[in-house]
Amino acid sequence: MVSKNTICLWYEGGALDAAKFYAATFADSAVGAVFHAPSDYPAGKQGEVLTVQFTVLGISCLGLNGGPAIKQSEAFSFQVATDDQAETDRLWSAIVNNGGQASQCGWCKDKWGLSWQITPRALTDAIVDPDPTAAKRAFLAMMQMQKIDIAAIEAARRG
Q1: Do residues 54 and 30 lie in contact, with contact meaning Cβ atoms separated by under 8 Å?
Q2: Cα–Cα distance between 92 and 110 in angstroms, integer?
Q3: Most-buried pick from 2, 27, 43, 143 (CB within 10 A)?
Q4: Fold for domain 1-70?
Q5: What are the two backbone dihedrals, phi and then psi, of residue 37, each rounded to the nearest 5 degrees?
Q6: Beta carbons of 11 and 18 less than 8 angstroms apart
Q7: Would you write out the chain's pLDDT as a tens digit for each of its 159 residues?
Q8: What is the pTM of this model?
Q9: Which residues are CB-neighbours of 80 under 8 A, at least 6 positions away?
């Protein structure tokens, strides 16, 4: 059963592969029901995977194989709060090394074009530091990074 509020994500055709990747990569994630098209449709043929129910980090999602008409955009991203550098490295590498693309400030895209923010809690703490000078130093350090380096953020925060 689809939950009351589900995020629908449009895929060119890889919704099932994406759901399997997310389930293998992120805690509290799983692939649910897979629905096949009952007839041909503009982006596919009868019997092909049309939608996939899945969860990512406990968030209910529906992957729709809608074809190439609509592309993913950075206007939507999953922000994943990580607890340490090992978790940050593991998730970032899983996404980028599986056909994804690195970007700035902890952002990356998976091979299906979906944006992810792999954000260490240490970064969030640093940029809201009550000392505005420490927060600014941490923020400026982050602006120079792709994957977030917690030790460098903490060093910048300290000055």
Answers
A1: yes
A2: 10
A3: 43
A4: 2,3-Dihydroxybiphenyl 1,2-Dioxygenase; domain 1 (3.10.180)
A5: -65, 130
A6: yes
A7: 667 899 999 999 999 999 999 999 999 999 999 999 999 999 899 999 999 999 999 999 999 999 999 999 999 999 999 999 999 999 999 999 999 999 999 999 999 999 999 999 999 999 999 999 999 999 999 999 999 999 999 999 999
A8: 0.94
A9: 26, 57, 91, 116, 117, 118, 119
